[in-house]
Inverse folding.
């Protein structure tokens, strides 16, 4: 092109990533696994350490960043704020217990292996949140989404996501400052919570006015364009306010979910998310040095050992949390439903690596934990499945 900048490497990587994500996502689903696992495998295969078709260049990472912002926007858009407020003490207790056990256990284990405080905190935070997408899909497949256990799992997973985003904002600021200090951490937590509350208070009336104004336009695609623009604007505002962009994108979704066009926005947004979101998971897989996965290489034993330890701690922390659920129901099934990690854990890993807070071996260990917990959850949930029926 006239600028003299070579665009074909980015276009080739984009094309390979899209096709690879869909192919391996389909294969994963045929094996009764979440598509995200297939997308991670595609990233491993297409990345620099194997085929070299997708290199995490600035262009690819920018597209991946847009993808994760749109994914969090979609999650917020599909989250009923009223249900989140009414979720009740049971889901809250389960969520807080699971996050605390997993976070503390993961961080303590990393410290025991002589990692610094900042990498240890990132490692613990990365295994602390449940994947609401994976858990919701498994519950739907088992016909258990409307059981009491299913509602508790989904409620806890939503709370996990909200708290996970706040924790992410905190540890991201800690990574940028290069250390772990109490006052900056408290400030980052206050900023994340404060921005989320302010965005909801100010954004809900603004969002309704925006969608009402857009409803008068007849130009093609105006609804989805205005919605995505709004989400990106709020994401930038979150960053400027000292929080994280994904907190802003999630808040924008919560805001537009309160409008009378929520369903229309959601349906129009899905094809856009289907294009960009897989690029994030492909980019995460592409950043994994496959040679570090060899457990027989002496230099890799720390990465493999950390991955196995984080998997065990992450599994036990969430499974034990299920037994905090008061009232009737199969607590073991609740615990199993909280086991899979996914999107937020990978966001932690990617941000930790991009800021230099995570070394290659810890990054690989976190990705390994996501793989392992997501593989373990489906068979365990099938074995422990309660009698189906309304909650």
């Amino acid at each position: 092109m006239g600028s003299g900048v070579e665009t074909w490497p980015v276009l080739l990587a984009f094309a390979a990533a899209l096709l690879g994500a869909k192919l391996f996502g389909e294969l994963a689903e045929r094996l009764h696994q979440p598509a995200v696992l297939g997308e991670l495998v595609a990233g491993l295969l297409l990345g620099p350490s194997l085929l070299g078709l997708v290199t995490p260049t600035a262009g690819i990472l920018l597209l991946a960043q847009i993808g994760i912002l749109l994914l969090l926007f979609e999650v917020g858009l599909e989250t009923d704020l009223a249900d989140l407020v009414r979720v009740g003490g049971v889901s809250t207790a389960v969520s807080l217990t699971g996050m605390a056990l997993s976070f503390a256990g993961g961080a303590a284990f990393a410290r025991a292996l002589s990692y610094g405080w900042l990498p240890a905190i990132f490692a613990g935070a990365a295994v602390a949140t449940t994947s609401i997408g994976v858990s919701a899909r498994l519950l739907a497949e088992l016909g258990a989404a409307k059981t009491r256990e299913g509602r508790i799992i989904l409620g806890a997973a939503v709370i996990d996501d909200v708290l996970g985003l706040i924790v992410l904002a905190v540890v991201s600021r800690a990574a940028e400052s290069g250390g772990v200090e109490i006052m900056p951490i408290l400030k980052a937590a206050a900023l994340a919570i404060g921005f989320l509350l302010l965005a909801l208070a100010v954004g809900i009336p603004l969002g309704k006015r925006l969608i009402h104004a857009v409803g008068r336009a007849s130009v093609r695609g105006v609804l989805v364009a205005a919605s995505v623009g709004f989400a990106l604007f709020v994401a930038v505002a979150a960053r400027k306010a000292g929080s994280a962009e994904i907190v802003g994108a999630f808040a924008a979704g919560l805001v537009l979910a309160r409008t009378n066009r929520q369903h229309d926005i959601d349906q129009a947004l899905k094809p856009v998310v289907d294009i960009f979101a897989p690029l994030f998971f492909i980019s995460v897989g592409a950043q994994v040095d496959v040679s570090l996965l060899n457990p027989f290489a002496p230099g890799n034993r720390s990465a493999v050992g950390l991955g196995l330890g984080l998997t065990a701690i992450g599994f036990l922390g969430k499974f034990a949390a299920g037994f905090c659920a008061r009232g009737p129901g199969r607590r073991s099934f609740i615990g199993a439903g909280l086991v899979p990690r996914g999107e937020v854990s990978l966001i932690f890993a990617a941000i930790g690596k991009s800021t230099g807070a995570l070394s290659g071996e810890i990054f690989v260990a976190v990705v390994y934990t996501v793989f392992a917990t997501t593989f373990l959850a489906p068979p365990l949930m099938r074995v422990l499945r309660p009698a189906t029926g309304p909650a």
Summary: The chain has a mean pLDDT of 80. The chain has 16 helices and no strands. The first helix runs from residue 8 to 30. The chain has one domain: 8-384.
